[in-house]
Amino acid sequence: MSSCSASSSSSSSAKTASRHPTASCAPSSASTSRAPPSPRASRPVAQASPVCWAGSRSDVGLPPLPRLRLGGAGRAPFRRGREFARTAADSAADVLHPLLALSRGLRVLAAGARRRWGELPGEQRGPAFFVAAACLFVVFLLPYGPLASAIGLLGAAGWAGRVRAPASPGPSADGTERLRLIYEALVPYFAAAEDPDPLYCHGGEWSRPFESFDFDEDGRLTRLLLRYPAYFTDGEAESRARVEQVLYAKSGRDREYLFTWDEEANRLTLAVLPALSTAICAQRFVTAPGETVLGFTDASSVRRTLPVLEGVDDETAEDGSGTDDADDAATTRDVPPVVWRTGPRSTEPHLLALGRPGSGTTTLLRSILLQALPHGDVLVVDGSGSGEYACLGGRAGVLAVECGLAGVLATLEWAGHETERRLLAANRARQFGHPPPEDVQRPLWIVLDWPSFISHVAAADGRTDPQELLQVPLRHGRAANVRVVVAEQLDAAEGLSEAVRFHTRARVVLGPASLEQTTAVLGAPPPTTPVPEVPAGRGYARLGAGPVHRLQVPATPDPYDDATSEGQRRAVLRLLPGPDAGSPGERVVATRK
């Protein structure tokens, strides 16, 4: 009985300890010393200690659990196992790559078919299912039909499941800020208060209208494709000019931009154009008779290219090694030219070039003369009298190089009579059914540089205006195979006669010029934004009613100028014809003041 009571009392004390673990596990803070427990009560408490969650094993007098150590030599097997697993996974991915691509492609095709089936109206699903089943039945009946369809399905799945290139990352922080500024600057021009869902609004999202964009290595914008609302008046030149001016100012004024308006799709593309090459010198161009290369332009403007030599080495030319070494030092490449076609069937047989001093108008005239001499005769009037055309004096095909008032008037008067004689000879030959005489078929070029100065001198002296003597060659030069080329300073363009303005339908503007001046001369605005600083010979050209082209005139300096490099001097001298072998009576005598 006593043993039973003792066991029952111990079990009841254990139950009580398990019900109140905190009281049995946490020591009392009120007492500073604890009495040792009795031997009878220590055993149940030790058995009930595992249910205590407030203390650790050391609190109840048990030794700590052993800790698993994976350092040193014990970690090597795990490392080798991890490397082996990675190698096995890579090998399996390489082996199973076609199967993975096919499975991915089949999922893409199945998802596309499911989507199309869901988008199909309910009344069309029955006929569509019948047509698909009929096609499958016909393919099953054809010889090798199931095999061919399976191969086609695998090919389509492989193409749909191919690994595509990752999407290009978005712009940097600076690029995002640039695009946001451009977007905010366009809001006043593309926004409307009546638009319920405006594409442009202050504080809006720029990624919505800007479909694509590119930046260079310096973080500057090189290309931008944007959308604009349909109510924008893109058919008005003033509205487009305002938008172009904003984009030009926000993207940087030191570069030249090309704006392409797609009025049908309401898209505007801004692209930065590369600089045209200035290393192309005067040379023999591969052209047909009646074609004159004014210069070179962008590849997107014309469909024709010409092989040219670019970059003549001055050191090779100074060695005096001749033509072959100079040609070897240059590189040959195909460039798009601006070709001016003249002749009886030309719609623009006469040309007018305008520019500021030093812009390259004289270089353009010299280039035209060097291309015209192999096939025709030339008359040169140097209004400035600076001797820029002295290299042509006494050459074969050069009828006269005039700079004095008396010689200019005599030469131009002879040119008018020569034009009438050619008209009569050609008319007489046509009446008898004969071709025109050879001297009529040979072109006659009348080149005037700075005619307003000669007109001013003639007016001061009470003589006839030299520009009035150009009326006959300008009006009837097309039928008489006579071409007139006039170069004038841009500020003195008002001094040109009405006949010169009306009959010169081929126009060239060189050097820095405002948008209004360029539009007034060419009759149409240029497709690019003008830059404040351009090299000599850089400008725009328009032939008749055609488009406006960027133009870079080939370098054709005066070979007698001390500032001309040796390579360019030799290039020009190679193009000059030999001395005139004709008798003086057959030519117009060149007179100088």
Automatic annotation (TrEMBL):
It comes from the Bacteria. Keywords: Membrane, Transmembrane, Transmembrane helix. Coiled coil: none annotated. The keyword Membrane applies. Gene3D superfamilies: P-loop containing nucleotide triphosphate hydrolases. The chain crosses the membrane at residues 126-144. Residues 1-47, 310-342 are annotated as: Disordered. Residues 311-328 have a biased composition (Acidic residues). The keyword Transmembrane helix applies. This is Putative membrane protein. It comes from Streptomyces himastatinicus ATCC 53653.
